[in-house]
Amino acid sequence: MQLFIDSADPIEIENAYRLGLISGVTTNPSLAAKSSQDYPKDIEKILRLIHGPVSIETVATTYEGMVAEGTALSRLNKHVVVKIPCVSEGFMAAKKLSSHNIAVNMTLCFTLNQALLAANAGVLFVSPFLGRLNEIERNSGFELLKKIKQAYSNYNIKTKILAASIRQAEDIETAALIGADICTVPYNILIGLSAHPLTKKGLDKFLTDWKGSGLSLPV
Ligand code: G3P
């Protein structure tokens, strides 16, 4: 399962990329509003840095507007993925953009039917929001992910499942066990993923034993 960062902050994105933690980025209007003063400039920085999918969301509410914004965004860089919400105009726009070989990520997916519509629109990614559902009813986000995985495999659907709205490190493990293709993760969770107290304790002991041994490596 690939990991993406769910952020619009170029500093977070650069750190996560340099640490080798991520292979793509998902942004959304709320993340942009939180971290950006100049969004076009930040997107330019992100696109210069990341050689992998970068989802940028449209903000138009009409079919024509989404197609126009999506087409313009796709021209910024070959790595741009146009993020479109799972609303009726969105599915139409996604179908149109996908028919022109523009990569689309259908976002705000909360039902299997939305995920089926996304697949029928021919999009590259669908993003079920696990955390927002789990907060309403325990594990319902994971249940949705299972249903999408099962239905997509029944029909050999090529749309990739991008698990979003991640709340804790354990959600990533659950998404991987269910079979998400990608998980997009906030920076604060990403940077903690490598740590375990037994790894630290074990390494301290290895190094103490090594220093006391007087041995050297065969290099
Ligand atoms: O970027 C889409 C999604 O991951 C947002 O998650 O934390 O706003 O529920 P959240």
From TrEMBL:
Its EC number is 4.1.2.-. GO terms for molecular function: aldehyde-lyase activity. It is an enzyme of class 4 (lyase). This is Fructose-6-phosphate aldolase. The lineage of its organism: Bacteria, Katanobacteria. SUPFAM superfamilies: Aldolase. Keywords: Cytoplasm, Lyase, Schiff base. GO terms for cellular component: cytoplasm. Pfam families: TAL_FSA. The keyword Lyase applies. One of its GO terms (biological process) is carbohydrate metabolic process. It is found in: Cytoplasm. The keyword Glycoprotein does not apply.
